[in-house]
Amino acid sequence: MNLPNKLTVFRICMVPLFMLFIYLQIPGKYLISLIIFAVAAITDALDGRIARKHNLVTDFGKFMDPLADKLLVIAALTCMIKPGLVPAWIVVVIVARELAVSIMRAIAAADGKVIAAGNSGKLKTVTQMLAIVFLLLGAHMDASLILKVGTVLIYIAAILTLYSGYEYFSKNKELFEDR
């Protein structure tokens, strides 16, 4: 297994660790969760760059990297509903879009096509991750301004989520024409 794929697997392994710490009733739980999330998010930026730079792109990486991103973001957002950091409806919108695009990618793969992440999808992921960072930091510091920034970012992420989902489906509508 090459380094980018190891980073992807590492990111997946960070998800339950993140969830464990965010649910523990210990001082600093949001800071610890933030550090775990940030380390995992950094591996997302690294694995793709390393894979492309050193020609280490694999089919495993093409499918598991987006899955790792989805697992990390969905786990974080889901854990942030109960403490009131993220509205549940935003999590439902994000999960629904992720499932829909994943199903579309599976249909395309069955036809021998690969749907690469578009710029709006990448921007959506970055915005979601930034929102999570600000929300966790704001919760840790009990800082209303930082929480407000995180809240604005999560609403922007919800809009980008809807837009990128629309873009994926409109650019690939031919997948569904003969079905």
TrEMBL record:
Per the UniProt record, one Pfam family is CDP-OH_P_transf
Q: What class of enzyme is it?
A: transferase
PROSITE patterns associated with the record = CDP_ALCOHOL_P_TRANSF
Give the pathway.
Lipid metabolism; Phospholipid metabolism; phosphatidylglycerol biosynthesis; phosphatidylglycerol from CDP-diacylglycerol: step 1/2
Q: Which terms are listed as keywords in the entry?
A: Cell membrane, Lipid biosynthesis, Lipid metabolism, Membrane, Phospholipid biosynthesis, Phospholipid metabolism, Transferase, Transmembrane, Transmembrane helix
Per the record's keyword annotation, is Lipid biosynthesis included, yes or no?
yes
Look up the EC number in the record and give it: 2.7.8.5
> What Gene Ontology molecular-function terms does this entry list?
CDP-diacylglycerol-glycerol-3-phosphate 3-phosphatidyltransferase activity
| Gene Ontology CC, one term | plasma membrane
Q: How does it sit in the membrane?
A: Multi-pass membrane protein
Matches recorded under NCBIfam families: pgsA
Family according to the record? Belongs to the CDP-alcohol phosphatidyltransferase class-I family.
Q: What does this protein do?
A: This protein catalyzes the committed step to the synthesis of the acidic phospholipids.
Recorded protein name is: CDP-diacylglycerol--glycerol-3-phosphate 3-phosphatidyltransferase
